[in-house]
Amino acid sequence: MSFCGLDFGTSNSAIGVVNQDDVAMMPLESDATLMRTAIFIDDEEKSFLFGRKGVDAYLEGDEGRLMLSIKSVLGTPLMHEKTNVLNKMVPFTSIIGLFMAEVKKRAELTCGYDITDVVLGRPVRFNDDNDELDRQAEHALREVAEKQGFKNIEFQLEPIAAAKAFQSNHNIEGNLLIVDIGGGTSDFTILSSGTTKPGQDFEVLGTSGIHIGGTNLDQVLALNKVMPELGMNSLMRSMNGNDITIPSSWFYQLSTWHEINRLYPPSTIKGIQQALVSTLDKKRTDRLINVLKAKQGHRILEDVEHSKIRLSESDSAVISLDAIEVGLDIEVGQVEFEEIIGPTISSIRGKISEIIKQCGLRNDDIDYVFYTGGTTLIPMVQDTINHMLPNAKALTGDMLHSVGIGLTLDAKERFM
Q: Would you kindly state where each structural domain of the chain is located, as residue ranges?
């Protein structure tokens, strides 16, 4: 059986095969069946490190370039652009190909045969507003898969895959909402009312999605708590003598995983330095320049992400910026965190209301809500959705593997 289900995720990726009629998720990093979607380009060794090893090499100070959240370029104009990799200009889709090839190779080493057929997961929308970019994103991902040796390539919506995983081992009666919130997208599916049994088909009433996920929460947390310490919202003296706010675009780029590397070229840093000659808060803007020169942007977002995760379990967390300045720590309380992410969560809530109406239902018609995806582990996410669905029973399962399991089940149906 040479088929698989491949969950190419914004933050983490997974691949599953069928072993003796059961789904088996392949170990990709030691025994771990989830692999960080990351590539480190080692300038000294002229080589690539993937997953957690790549992130660790970067954070330990190895010379090179770290690329995270590479899935996020799909559905944006960036997917047509090229970037410098070991002194060669290559398209961003080639970088996605490098990662996909590595995942495929590691899975094949474990299962012991070549994998030729694949069901690839995709969000409901790669781009929320542009149908053509959305279409191009799927086409680009198909081309990437073909170049890595996949012969038969099918796509399945990630929330449908999560629904398949849930339905495979649950009996339900009523209307079920699947909420799948990962690193880059939030996707939703409503299953038809009635009784479904394990292994039995079910009717999908509707699917919907929005390009918001865990990385957006990292961004708003960084913008509100970290970037002001690097000069965001501070003033500079303009040519006509007026005080104006320094450009915010640098800070938005520095808070966006797949945009950070664009700030590191010496010419870009020089331009920012020249623009900040008349800054009125030299202490903070000097920190910004130091961050860029030392290529510390990914480390900052890594610390922000860890703080976000800690805030799912604790009343407060500290974002340590010791790498920028000794003793520079930023404390974030749970209440403050929820205020910061509130508008983002509101957008997710609005999309859920929209799909419920599109399916001809009311909020109190939802009997069950099933949560999957790492971002649903944030208490405020579930609390907000549970509050809007008064009659729904909250269900959880394998929060991080549901999509991968469902894609593998889908591959079994198509190729076996």
A: 3-159+404-415, 173-212+339-395, 215-335
Instruction: Give the pLDDT of residue 199.
Output: 47
The answer to whether the beta carbons of residues 52 and 45 sit under 8 Å apart is no
CB-based contacts of 120, cutoff 8 Å, min separation 6? 6, 8, 141, 142, 145, 153, 154, 155, 156, 407
* Domain 3-159+404-415 CATH superfamily: ATPase, nucleotide binding domain (3.30.420.40)
Q: What is the CATH number of domain 173-212+339-395?
A: 3.30.420.40
Q: Which residues contact 410 (CB under 8 A, 6 or more apart)?
A: 5, 119, 154, 156, 160, 161, 164
Residue pLDDT, tens place only, 60-90: 888 888 998 899 999 998 888 888 888 889 9
In this model, does residue 197 exceed pLDDT 60?
Answer: no
Q: Which residues of 120-136 are buried (b: 16+ CB within 10 A; e: fewer)?
A: bbbbbbbbbeeeebbeb
pLDDT tier for residue 193 given thresholds of 50, 70 and 90? low
Instruction: Give the residue-averaged pLDDT of 120-144.
Output: 93
Equal fold, 3-159+404-415 vs 173-212+339-395: yes
- Mean pLDDT (the chain) is 91
Whole-model pTM: value is 0.87
Mean pLDDT (whole number) for 94-99 = 95
- Judged against a pLDDT cut of 70, whether residue 220 lies above it is answered with yes
- The CA distance from 40 to 8, in Å, is 17
